[in-house]
Amino acid sequence: MKKFQELKDLVTTIEKDAAAFYEKGNKAAGTRLRNGLQQIKGAATDIRKEVTSLKNKAK
User: Fold this and answer.
1) What is the pLDDT of residues 21-56, one digit of tens each?
2) CB within 8 A of 16, min separation 6: which ones?
3) Directed axis angle between helix 2-24 and helix 27-57, to 10°?
4) What is the pTM assigned to this prediction?
5) CA-CA distance, 49 to 56, in Å (whole number)?
6) CA 55 to mean position of chain CA atoms
7) What is the DSSP string of 19-42?
8) Angstrom distance (rounded) from CA 9 to CA 3
9) Residue 4: how many other CB atoms lie within 10 Å
10) Most buried among 33, 36, 52, 59, using CB within 10 Å?
11) CA distance 18 to 11
């Protein structure tokens, strides 16, 4: 559950950059947003692997 909370925190962290990019056209915020989304992708992949591992142990 810790990794899921970290994922939620990452989403919250990039929310400000998303607003700055989409609403104000701030290109630097777009770069930070893309970087944050890449981190989210990695975190989501880690969670998927963990869930699969725990699910398979239950068999």
Assistant:
1) 999 999 999 999 999 999 999 999 999 999 999 999
2) 29
3) 160
4) 0.83
5) 11
6) 22
7) HHHHHH--HHHHHHHHHHHHHHHH
8) 10
9) 13
10) 33
11) 10
